[in-house]
Amino acid sequence: MAEIQLGNIESRFAEMIWKNEPVSSSELVKMAAVEFAWKRTTTHTVLRRLIDKGLFQNDNGTVTSLISEQEFHSMQSRKIVDESFHGSLPAFIAAFASNKKLTKAEVDEIQKMIDAFRGE
Q: How far apart are CA 11 and CA 49, in angstroms?
C-alpha cells in the first residue's frame, strides 16, 4: 500500500471521521465548524484530500473509511521503525523504554503480545 502522509490538521480531521463514521458530509461540516472553525468549503477541501489519499470514501454523502484508524496507525508505526531503526522492532522498543519507565501493566501487556506471537 502506498505511503500516506497527513499533516496535523488532516490527522485531527481524520480522527474525527473515524470516531463518528459512518457520517454524513453535512454532519462533518457542522462538526468541523465547531472543532476547527471551518467553513463548508474548507471541510469539503480537506475531506477531498483525505479521499484522494485513499483513507475515506464519500458515497452519496455518507463518509466511511477505506483504511481503519488502527490500520493507518500500524502503517505509520512500521514506517517509523523501518526508517529510524532499520526495521528493528527490538531497537525501537529499547529506545522507547529508555526514555520512559514502563509500568507493570505495560510490561504484562507486551509479554502477552510476545506470548501470542510465540503461540503460547
A: 11
